Amino acid sequence: MVHKKRHLLMDFIAGLAIAGLVVLLSGCGAGLPKELKNEAKAIPNAVKTGKSQVDKHWDKYKSLKKSTEFKDIERFALKENWAQKFQLAHDELKRAKELYDKDLKPLISKNKPELVPQVKQQITRIKKILHDAEGLGRYPVLRFSKIKNTIYNADSLQSRAKNDAQHISRIANEIKNGPIAKANTDFPDLSEKINTRFAPLLKLERQSRDHLNVVAAVYSRHTAGSTADYAAFTDSTEALVSGLEQAKILEIKLTQEMTQLYSSYTKILKDMKEENFVTIKRESWNENSDYNDPRFATFHRQVSPEAYEALTADNLDTIAAIRAGFTGSKFSTNLGSLWKKLSINPTEQWPGRGHNAASFWVEDSKEAYFHKYMLEENGETKETDWEKVDASFYDANLEFLGMAILAKPYGVFEQDRMTQAAPPGMAYVGNSQYGEWKQDNTGNRFWSWYGKYALFSTLFNLRPSYYSYNSWNGWRNNYRYNRPYFGKTQNGFQKYGTSGTYIKKSPRFQSTTFAKSGGFKSQTASVRGAGANLRGGGPKSKGK
Length: 544
What we know:
- This protein has 17 helices and 10 strands.
- The termini are close together.
- It is an alpha+beta fold.
């Protein structure tokens, strides 16, 4: 028994040392990140550097004012008060310093990790002010260079401005008479949305004409040798260059958006499954030896959700053990019949060397989640293979088996697609591209699908089923874009979705992996996160 007491004492001392180290490290780690503190503390120097840069720009500007070439441009400097830009720059630098002293420095002094968002916000705010101050300091000399360039290159700039304006007008007209006109004809109910999207390009074209008029008027005075507003000429030519770039972007955007109206798709959740994995670790040793020589073995297993939940329970420490005795070693487990399902031979990979005892525990656990979809696009359907999804998405869609979790009908923009779960095809009902309303013998209105879209009426049963006008109208007014729609039977039971009567009666969905794994019976959330509190290693005593 002496060697056992010695081992216990050594383990106790080692435990104290580790605990002390953890406390020391946690104490050192508290506070703001070092990089963030350094970034904040660098701001006063950045302010000083900013002042130095503004002063250099001021000196350069004063020298520029003494030059002969400045005389032709001086009237613009006076009119726009370029000299004031330097004072405004210094005012901004002063404000940056005041914000640092008042708002940022106290946060750094507190040095608390929960203040990180506030510190980042203040740093961003002050850096924006420093950037603006730099821009103000550069403005006068930069403005001088631009106007000077305009005077010397008025001919080429006027020619380019004319070409830019014509290009903008051509883009606007082609979009207006092409995709926009076609969309308005094909989808008259969407005219307001279509024209709202076209409005920025229309405005850009109007502005380009105004800028070209300015360029033409100034250029006329320039060629006549009269006093000309070269500052306005500069601004308008730059606006046309920028406007053409914007027009090209809008051309692509509008073409793509109008094309969206002519496609439709639905994504139906056909099946779902979760896979759970555990890593079982075994430590073995010689109970009769004073020499500590442990050996480890690892077993990776895929298990059922129920087994996974049991194996990752918070109160689970060791799951099995081999204990030495006078008549030999004996294996025992506290998992009952679950141990057999793991298919682990307790002495597999046994190290020998006289080892006669061991402990088994769950070292690690992980989950994987999968969906299988039925995809419909423009009336053509296909089924996907299993697609891995993240845990939160899996949990969020547990109730939507057999439902459309994404739908975009004809005549709907991508940004308006429907992401609230609904019965398959419900988003298409009422749209003449897909079918029409009919009346049965009792006078009730129901939706009749055209040819290739009839698949939506046979998803759940072999015989066709139809959407009534009342159910569709209720979905459209109260659920679309707001919340999932499960519908109700005449008896008040849920009709669609994982808990719906249609799914539970459908042979198609009763044969899914979800159904075969007991999903309909349990209707419980996944066991994701159950193993979050697993210890980072095995039991500490090892029976010693």
